[in-house]
Write a structure and sequence with these properties.
This protein is α/β, with parallel strands linked by helices. The protein has 13 helices and five strands.
């Protein structure tokens, strides 16, 4: 792969049709896995474990608690309900009035946490108002920018930052070789840091200058994307060091097929089913997307958890790389010791002994090397 000729597609496989069929099956399985994952996650969004802050009429709150799709937090005032949304403690808030002629149900949403989730919370508030025969009003506390009304640009930024970092780590392993010395470890680390920084910079430049979807200081967005690249690229580097290129590619496929969908995408995590909500805590893209949204729309609220979990991914990659280097060095040292105790034909000491052996031990060679006697 690395260093091969790029001027042609090569002579082809010796088992052309067998490998053709196997390759086609592999690609078809990958395509179907992508289709199955993305359609299952995003095809039929339904509220599932939506976190709501509620305040107001106690009887209505009790009725809401009977709905299995909602996870309610009762607060004492409308101000605290708003604060819970802005602090990212809940997905939305509903202030419930006492039933009456001029009753108004007030719903607070945050589209910046996921446009689909914001619409779902707004719908919940509207259905409650209809049931109470009250007026419904909705306030968006974290609206999306005009240049990104669907809220998809952040998702794609995280998607390609992770994909670029994973593929880069895999390719660098093929080009630079196995990390088996401290020098190579430092070299790979520097390459990964510089590459993910360049990747994050280009993505930030594009979504800011070209798309106008950055609502805060671009440096904050760049930092989130760089941390994402370091976490995913570092983990893939560690997996490759332990299991090789195939293991790194399988990890990349899992990140693409399951990691991106379990982040919730533009919808929000609480519109996914239980399976993908569980995977949210397995893969890093969900934390990256939440971190980026907190920076963009919530003034940095609730960022400590995602940062810690992404740092764990990066540190895990470093530890796996170091463990692989240690295991490899120990195996090589043990092999050298075994070779020194029992010299073999391919060991340097065996060649030296053979080269310095006495001619008497090889009578045929000694006879050939002995000068011929001169006949007088």
């Amino acid at each position: 792969m690395a260093g091969g000729a790029l001027t042609s597609e090569g002579p082809g496989s010796q088992h052309r049709y067998r490998n053709l069929i196997l390759g086609a099956i592999g690609i078809l399985l990958f395509a179907m896995a992508m289709l199955t994952s993305y359609s299952s996650a995003f095809g039929n969004p339904t509220p599932n474990n939506v976190h709501l802050a509620v305040a107001g009429n106690a009887e209505t709150i009790v009725a809401l608690e009977q709905q299995g799709s909602l996870d309610l937090t009762v607060v004492s005032s409308e101000a605290k309900a708003r604060a819970a949304v802005l602090d990212r403690e809940v997905d939305g808030a509903v202030v419930l009035p006492t039933a009456g002629k001029n009753a108004v149900v007030t719903t607070y949403i945050a589209s910046g946490a996921g446009r689909g989730l914001g619409q779902a919370v707004s719908g919940i508030g509207g259905s409650i108002a209809q049931r109470l025969k009250a007026t419904s009003t909705t306030t968006d506390l974290a609206p999306l920018p005009q240049k990104d009304p669907v809220g998809s640009i952040e998702f794609y930024a995280i998607l390609f930052a992770g994909l670029g970092a994973a593929l880069g780590a895999t390719v660098f392993g093929r080009i630079l070789g196995t990390v088996d010395t401290s020098t190579k470890f430092v070299e790979r680390s520097i390459v990964l840091v510089l590459y993910t920084g360049a990747l994050a910079g280009l993505i930030t430049l594009w979504i800011d200058a070209a798309l106008g979807a950055v609502t805060v200081n671009p440096g904050a967005v760049f930092a989130v994307l760089w941390l994402t690249g370091m976490a995913i690229g570092g983990a893939v580097t560690g997996v490759a060091a332990l299991g090789g290129t195939i293991a790194a590619l399988l990890t990349t496929l899992a990140l693409v097929i399951l990691g991106n969908t379990s982040s919730g995408g533009p919808l929000g995590i609480h519109l996914l089913n239980d399976f993908f909500q569980a995977l949210y805590y397995v893969f890093p893209q969900g934390d990256s997307l939440d971190l980026l949204r907190s920076v963009q729309y919530f003034d940095g609220a609730a960022i400590s958890g995602p940062i810690i979990r992404l740092a764990i991914w990066a540190v895990a990659g470093i530890l796996m790389t170091l463990i692989a280097m240690l295991i490899r060095n120990r195996r090589e040292a043990a092999a050298q010791l075994r070779g020194g105790d029992h010299p073999s034909a391919d060991h340097p000491s065996a060649d030296y002994l053979q080269a310095t052996a006495s001619p008497a031990s090889h009578p045929e060679q000694a006879a050939l090397d002995k000068p011929a006697e001169v006949t007088r």
